[in-house]
Amino acid sequence: QLDRGFALHTTAKDCLSSLAAQDVQTAPERPREVFYTNENNPANHTEQHEGRLYSIPLDEVKVVFPHGLPYRFQQQVLCFSLTVSTGDGERGTGKTMTLCHVVHYCARQGWLVLHVPDAHLWVKNCRELLQSSYNKERLDQPLQASSWLKNFKTSNERFLKEIKTHKKYMWGKRDSTEEGRPLAEVVEQGLARVRNASDAVGVVLKELKQQSRLGSFRLLVAVDGVNALWGRTTLKKEDKSPVSPEELTLVHNLRKMLMNDWSGGAVVTTLSQTGSLFKPSSAYLPQELLGKEGFDALDPFVPIPVPNYSPREFESCYHYYLQRKWLQHEK
User: Fold this and answer.
1) Does the keyword Endoplasmic reticulum apply (predicted)?
2) Cβ 217 vs Cβ 210: under 8 Å
3) What is the pLDDT of residue 89?
4) Residue 306 domain-assigned?
5) What is the pLDDT, as a whole number, of residue 74?
6) What share of the chain is helix, strand, coil (3-state, %, to 5)?
7) Which residues make Cβ contacts (< 8 Å) with residue 261, sequence separation at least 6?
């Protein structure tokens, strides 16, 4: 069965909320470097380095995080480093960056990574909403779907060449993807014909879910702001009636990936207040953000609370800010 949880498994809390692996020998005259480590492989991170910073090469960031790291984080750091605090918690405690650390770890371990960096973007401010040609009761979001496919391709290109389709897929009356073709052709269909992008995402997710149990690859499903998949949206139909999440093709297919009915991978998600719609700002517990429907859909899961910075994490950030001269006085 799947390893499920919000953000981190308990056995990985210290390891993955840390940011480093091997101690950096620090010269006495440069004591502030204790907040940083040269070990940039998450697989080597141990709890003795909890709260430290590590760097990710820019070319690797472009592959693992083609959508970019969170904007506010980039503004703060200005140097592609990951500072991870450790699952569900109050706003600003580090849930998104913890998830990024997990994504980086799995990418380094050779996993296929299915990453949705902000599920709330699928349920609000959609510029184009079209009736699905596959199911008239659902609505496609071609722009969001094509954008996700582009980033997914960047992160998993070698897998897409190796994984073959298990059946034939029709794209209208003329276009089709034959059985036994590389999954990359499905992705290209969604990119070349944006109208088919939402259905292409559905096919990709279906094939990955079916084939992950075969053992040829390990699959990480990482969703930031998973609570967006249940509740309400800001989207309206042509008749001005509200759109519910389950009517969206993207949401419908992503929900299937969160079910505990496949093997060969892990599901890691976070709850988010930041983009949450129609929820009080004080809400942060799973029951509050997911609602009964979402909570029941994900159950059983392992909820991992993300507390505020520990003293060690605070000290690391403090010394980092000093080094960057963002603080004028040390005291």
Assistant:
1) no
2) no
3) 46
4) yes
5) 63
6) 45, 15, 40
7) none
